Amino acid sequence: MLSSTAEDEEIEVRISSNCPADSLSHLCNFERYCSLLSHLLLCSLAFGDDADMEFLKKLSLRNSGFARKIYEASDAALQLNQFYKQVSSPLLSNVTFKYQENQVVSDSLTRTNFHTLFDGSELIISGRLHATEITGEVNARGCTGLICPRIVKPEIIPGHKRNFMERMWAFLTIQQLLDKITAEEDNASLKQKALELALKYSFVTSLTSLVVVKPDDTTAEAETKRADIAEDLMYQSSAVMMCAPSYPEKTDGEGDIDDDQATDWSSSDEDNENIDDKDENHRND
Known about the structure:
Layout: E1 11-16, H1 23-35, E2 41-47, H2 53-62, E3 67-70, H3 76-87, E4 90-99, E5 113-118, E6 136-142, E7 145-147, E8 150-151, H4 164-183, H5 188-201, E9 203-204, E10 209-213, E11 222-226, H6 228-237, E12 241-242, H7 270-284
Parallel strand pairs: 1-2, 2-3
Antiparallel strand pairs: 4-5, 4-6, 6-7, 6-8, 9-12, 10-11
Helix pairs in contact: 2-4, 4-5
């Protein structure tokens, strides 16, 4: 898909509408086959509710790609068109960011290696700095061969409140941990790390619970339910829901959030500050 002056970029798209009769054997064999093609960017499309979306997610993530579900609706053709636009114009491949070890906390960095950069997309890396200065370089392959641009010092934009950059780092880290959990078999430690970050920064994920307080209930009885749809939302739209409930109380039962966990429910929006103030005035009345 790149110019003939460079090695062509290989992208494979797999389409699935249902599971075969001998699904377990078929999936295992197909997984072994794709493991031999780890250099490929594998994208998967799942049509309808019968497709094994979890397997397609795992398969694609193990091959540096992603899976999309095409919902049965009147805009199905539009969904396919958006998918094609996303993958039809690769600009760079084998993109690697390198930073000076004495300037960044290496184990705090989010993902620094990317298979492909598509036109209209962006690559975001977050981490903690040892110093105010930051230098580095980018190694990638384009249509004219290898390129190695320098990383310039970014412009500092003041004005964000409530540790916006720290929450952005947590958001990206949780998102990438959930991808690893889907792709890997032994993921107990990854789940624990993602859970701790989600509770600390008040993100609703597939590993945490959402606490909903009934507005007309004077006893403020809280209901908890598993946010099963959160993982699919995060995976498809690369977004994590931020929760800002009105001071939930602890309830009995499985999946409840303890008092020490139900902290830091603040969001980075100023609008959420106004909502919190209105809730406080309502309780005082």
